[in-house]
Amino acid sequence: MTTATLRQSYNPVGTRATTHVPLVPAKRHSSRCPDKNWAPFAGGRNLVEWTLASIPRDLFPRIILSTDRDGYDPATKCDVHRRDPALATVAADVQEVVRAVIEQYGLHDSYIWLLNPTSPFRGRDDFDDIAELIETTGCPAVISVSPVGPFLWQGDRPLFETTGRRINTQDGPQSYAVENGAFYVFRADAFLEQGSWYLRGMRRYEQSDASARVDIDTPDDFRAAQRIARTLRASDEASPSAETMRNETLAVDATIAPPVAPHLILLANHIGRYLDARRCLRITARDRVLDASCGMGYGSYLLAQQAARVVGLDINSGYLATARRLFGAPHLSFDTIDAHFAEPREPFDKLVCIETYEHVPPDGIAAFMNRLLGALVNGGDAYLTFPIGDDGPATDNPFHLNEPGLATIHQQFGERFSDLSYRVAHRRDSFGRCGPYACATLTGYRGDVPC
Which candidate, 250, 249, 291, 253, places its Cα nearest to that of 274? Predict the structure, then answer.
């Protein structure tokens, strides 16, 4: 969708919506979590600034912040709606705030994008996807939700029919979803007419990432959200040296090019990989996960949001020290690879091996992978990423010692797993190369098959 398309959309009943306007509501006080909107959150920003900075300016030339905080001058350029004191009380309804903003700024023909600072984790893809949903369907409203369940209970009874036996999550009924507070997008004219953003013909937008469920209401919620946001700080604290490039491949989307800070591109890339691994492996609260080459631990932390236990391994003691300091938790631990395998350990249900294969010499990759796979239970699954090459060192990246072809991967793992699936995309790395990169999901490990 182009910016012009977004700024001038049409709905099926013929009412023209000429603008799309984000509205960020932020009261000065909170009864359950004092100053939650204004306290330091992450990266030198409070929740309000964090939310404003997440809004893509190429899609939204105008942004409105509604607040009762006197004299607040946001770092991000936006219009500041100074609330009437009656709209800033504990009992005040945010819908009345929305109504006041529409009337004051003449937004009757607009789509309002209500973005709560207390649901801080939204990405550019979310904005693009919702805009496309509005454009293609003409729906009057879109509300973001997160999946829950399927094992929901009401009182002392489950909300699904039970046969008396425990069923697997993937075999359960379709999951329910709850509003997560990240996006309420609606036509202003319909909102004024009906007094609600729950409009006939509205659509839901599902955010499957666990971080989207974060809704900050208490100090504990605030601290939990900070831990997620701290992944950005972890990258800033580490120097993007040659050693960083040696241990963690910089493989970015071909549309991203310098002068974007390399370590920030690397961070965004890795977070995306880990979220993809979590989705492809269908990690649940019963799974034990081994994260090979965990680096500074932010990916292991993301895996631990859904797993019963996660162990992150790496060869870099400095990275492991950072990981333990920032992301240590009762069910999340970090260790060196050699120390972990020095004695028998519990088996794992899932193996994650991101940006690692290419750093192991061809004559050592079989032993390395056998070591990792030996930790998997029969029937376990693995997620593996690698640049696609000609079964040898890269000619233009000195840190890539081994870039395999898909045939090699299939030969190495085809008989040891019930199924192998690949997704291939073109990526640009830190040396300016743009080439094919694969994400492989390997399911149904056969531990009895000879290496």
Answer: 291
Q: What secondary structure, in 3-state letters, does 92-120 show?
A: CCHHHHHHHHHHHHCCCCEEEEECCCCCC
Q: Which residue pairs from 156-159 have beta carbons closer than 8 angstroms and sit at least 24 positions apart in sequence?
A: none
pLDDT in tens, the chain (451 residues): 444 445 444 333 334 446 899 999 998 877 777 788 888 888 778 999 999 988 998 889 899 999 988 877 787 788 999 888 888 777 778 999 999 999 999 999 999 999 999 999 888 888 999 999 998 999 999 999 887 655 555 555 554 554 444 444 444 445 556 788 899 999 999 999 999 999 999 999 988 666 777 888 888 888 888 877 765 444 334 333 323 322 333 233 333 333 334 445 556 667 888 988 998 999 999 999 999 989 889 899 999 989 999 999 999 888 899 889 888 788 999 999 888 888 778 899 999 999 899 888 888 988 999 999 999 999 999 999 988 887 777 666 778 888 888 888 988 998 999 998 888 776 655 555 566 778 899 999 998 876 6
Domain that holds residue 264: 238-445
Is 230 inside a domain boundary? Answer: no
* Calpha distance 442→418 (Å, rounded): 8
* Same domain, yes or no: 278 and 203: no
22-56 b/e with 16+ CB inside 10 Å = b?
A: bbbbbbeebeebeebbbeebbeebbbbbbbbebbe
Helix 365-373 and helix 406-413: axis angle, to 10°?
Answer: 50
The domain spanning residue 271 has which CATH number? 3.40.50.150
Query: Residue 86 has what DSSP assignment?
Result: G
Is 211:157 a contact under the CB 8 Å cutoff? no
Overall domain count for the chain: 2
**Which residue stretches of 281-340 are H helix?**
298-304, 317-327, 337-340
Task: Say yes or no: 294 and 423 in one domain.
Answer: yes
Residues 212 and 262 in one domain: no
82: Cα within 13 Å, side-chain hemisphere: 4
Residue 233 lies in a domain: no
Beta carbons of 181 and 207 less than 8 angstroms apart: no
Domain boundary among 152, 185, 217: 217
Pair (265, 383) in one structural domain? yes
